[in-house]
Amino acid sequence: MDYAADAQRTDLMTITRFVLNEQSKHPESRGDFTILLSHIVLGCKFVCSAVNKGEEQKKLDVLSNEVFVKALVSSGRTCILVSEEDEEATFVEPSKRGRYCVVFDPLDGSSNIDCGVSIGTIFGIYSVKDGGEPTLDDVLQPGKNMVAAGYCMYGSSCTLVISTGSGVNGFTLDPSLGEFILTHPDIEIPKKGKIYSVNEGNAKNWDGPTAKYVEKCKFPIDGSSSKSLRYIGSMVADVHRTLLYGGIFLYPADKKSPNGKLRVLYEVFPMSFLMEQAGGQAFTGKQRALDMVPKKIHERSPIFLGSYDDVEEIKALYAAEENK
Ligand code: FBP
Q: Known Pfam families for this protein (predicted)?
């Protein structure tokens, strides 16, 4: 009888237990964050079951958004919500208000759902700047001010990856328990990877540094082996693979979309926060992604994120272009 394995198997580290442990490290904490996160987890469980039931795609986006908005408001811990699905920000009525702002994409990669490819929910959490009346300025903050970020991937398994600013941890939903169990503790992205991930269909519209970088991935001049291309077309799935295997995910600007495609608040910032917490980097082509200060809630930005050394290479190409 392998008692150690048995003890391990029976010592269930659920996400609630994990966050409560984290909370105990902050004696000043009132448990607001734990309550907020439990409502986000509830939303993820709902979407996971709906995805597995194969709900119509159109309805699933709207359904996921409704569930997250209602769960976040009913937590009593939020004051502003920004969703990819809603044109305007939602200001929670004063009687139900708390001190957190949540920016989220309830169902990212939605164009992939009909063929059953992995999709996901992405979220970022800010706390309001001061105790006053919440304003849009409380969400139009640099990404580095986030207190937590994460995503939940709905694929062959349902995996929730989160950071509260001290490392990155991954939890897998055990359907028999209905609980997210810690399966990927302290995720650290490899310093350099063998994979690059980009929609090469846009190549003809790329700028010089991006085109040069992808060329180097395919035809390295330093004798190293060429990188493999992997592109799912769901940011959550492409970033999840990048986080675990290393390499680089990029959605650059191009002539067609000069600001790129991905949204700063609820796609670029949360993924950049996780990447940095796992030892990687996130760059916009001009600056560290988390230093950006968005002016609009649905603003877009180019993004290059992944293994530290791989992102360093693309930063060098942009710097060289600038110094021309
Ligand atoms: P949606 O929020 O409309 O799903 O768009 C985001 C997204 O699907 C990302 O998940 C993915 O990385 C990207 O768009 C794929 O874009 P493209 O099809 O242009 O490569």
A: FBPase, FBPase_C
Domain parsing of the chain, residue ranges: 9-184, 195-323
Partners of 283 in beta bridges: 288, 304
| Best of 103, 111, 122, 238 for a ligand 1 pocket test (most atoms within 8 Å of beta carbon) | 111
CA dihedral 131, 95, 151, 289 (to 10 degrees): -30
Per-residue pLDDT reduced to its tens digit, 192-228? 999 999 999 999 999 999 999 999 999 998 889 999 9
- Tell me how far CA of residue 41 lies from CA of 46, 68, 158, 173, 318, in angstroms: 9, 10, 11, 10, 39
Q: How many helices (H) does the chain have, and how many strands (E)? A: 8, 13
CA distance 202 to 263: 18
As for ligand 1, residues whose beta carbon falls within 6 Å of it are 84, 105, 108-111, 199, 233-235, 238, 261
CATH number, span 195-323: 3.40.190.80
Q: Return the CATH fold of 9-184.
A: Fructose-1,6-Bisphosphatase; Chain A, domain 1 (3.30.540)
* CA–centroid distance, residue 300 to ligand 1 (Å): 12
Within 13 Å, how many C-alpha atoms sit on residue 215's CB side? 10
184: left (phi over 0), alpha (psi -120 to 50) or beta: beta
Q: Residue 56 pLDDT > 70, yes or no? A: no
Rounded CA Rg of the chain: 20
Which of 82, 230, 261 has the most ligand 1 atoms within 8 A of CB, as the residue to mutate?
Answer: 261
DSSP string, 213-244: HHHHHHS-SSSPPPPEE---S-HHHHHHHHHH
pTM: 0.96
